[in-house]
Amino acid sequence: MNEFKPFDDRLAGLIAALSPAGRRRLTADIAKKLRRNQQQRIKSQKAPDGTAYVPRKRQPVRAKKGRIKREMFAKLHTNRYLKASGNDSAAVVEFTGKVQRIARVHQYGLKDRPGRNSYEIQYPERQLVGFDKVSIQLVEEEILLRLSSLKV
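That's the Phage virion morphogenesis protein sequence above. Prediction below.
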């Protein structure tokens, strides 16, 4: 027998005590906090494990003059492209629209064409979204806060 069985039963009872609207609010709040955490991490150019993103590849000497001064994924981490939503059973943080393809290519390190007439390029893996210790702690704290306010 599992030693956590009584704890699991009690936790299942507490979650079941939440109304569907309460669960929806809980998952929406969790999704918003996770999105904020992911946005800060992407802005600081760090993967979920804490390592820095692989820097951009240097451009050939004969290419355009100047250098790329913008940070990577400057617009991707905005609320416009990184959406948070929650329903009765799940909290979702996802990229929307056309940026989904760009995010997927960088998340998994796939090949893509940067321009219509260019060659395929292998992109290095840069994990944009993922769970780290802080994210897990945010979820746990939000659940505990919500369950502690229940009157059972």
